[in-house]
Automatic annotation (TrEMBL):
Family listed: Belongs to the peroxiredoxin family. AhpC/Prx1 subfamily.
Family annotation (InterPro entries): AhpC/TSA (IPR000866), Peroxiredoxin (IPR050217), Peroxiredoxin_AhpC-typ (IPR024706), Peroxiredoxin_C (IPR019479), Thioredoxin-like_sf (IPR036249), Thioredoxin_domain (IPR013766)
Identification of the protein by name: Thioredoxin peroxidase
Cross-referenced PROSITE patterns: THIOREDOXIN_2 (PS51352)
Function, as annotated: Thiol-specific peroxidase that catalyzes the reduction of hydrogen peroxide and organic hydroperoxides to water and alcohols, respectively. Plays a role in cell protection against oxidative stress by detoxifying peroxides.
Organism encoding this protein: Emticicia soli
Length: 210
């Protein structure tokens, strides 16, 4: 089920913040009423596509912050594994230099509640045991969450498909424009371009100018 238009599920779990500090009770509640959140999931630490994405988010971090948004990463690895990866230089496949929080979803509950877990728990009535079917890591899910905690965008990529980070800046710009002007943003809209009023007259006026 999509989370778009709904309150993002509550999080209270371990994380690494500021690239060096482990905390036990990280929550997105700290951003409510203050910041937008770009929450992104990735499969595993110490892999291949994942560090390129984490560094790409870091490279654009100032742009997200300029727009009043926090960036938060998440995988099913432990806090200790996150920290080890954060202490590994970029040239060695590490993510040294990443400063935004990275959630440790070791229980897989955050990924499961977000609809991005690559498998599911199945109960066997005969053996009375639980097993996991599928891939026990998160797909590349990305969520744009507004200041009230409502999900305004979600997308999920399969494991081999890296994200385009600029697209999330574009979507954040669109959300900010909608909130500020009450207009809607047409296909391929970018900041500074003409938006439209959500009426037949507004659509006609938009096409007459474009």
């Amino acid at each position: 089920m999509s989370l778009v238009g709904k309150k993002y599920p509550h999080i209270n779990t371990g994380a690494v913040i500021d690239g060096e500090e482990i905390v036990d009770n990280f929550s997105l509640d700290q951003y409510l009423g203050k910041k937008y959140v770009i929450l992104f999931f990735y499969p595993k630490d110490f892999t291949f596509v994942c560090p390129t994405e984490l560094h790409a988010f870091q490279e654009k971090l100032a742009e997200f912050e300029k727009r009043g948004a926090a960036v938060v990463g998440c995988s099913t690895d432990t806090e200790e594994t996150h920290l080890a990866w954060l202490n590994t230089p970029k040239e060695q496949g590490g993510i040294q230099g990443i400063t935004y929080p990275i959630i440790a979803d070791t229980s897989k509950i955050v990924s499961l509640n977000s609809g991005v877990l690559g498998g599911e728990y199945v109960f066997n009535n005969e053996t009375r045991t639980w097993s996991f079917v599928g891939n026990p890591v998160a797909f590349r899910g990305t969520f744009l969450i507004d200041k009230e905690g409502i999900v305004r965008h979600e997308s999920i990529n399969d494991l081999p498909l890296g994200r385009n980070i600029d697209e999330y800046l574009r979507l954040l710009d669109a959300q900010l424009h909608v909130e500020k002007y009450g207009e809607v943003c047409p296909a391929n809209w970018e900041e500074g371009e003409t938006a439209m009023v959500a009426t037949n007259a507004g659509v006609a006026n938009y096409f007459s100018q474009n």
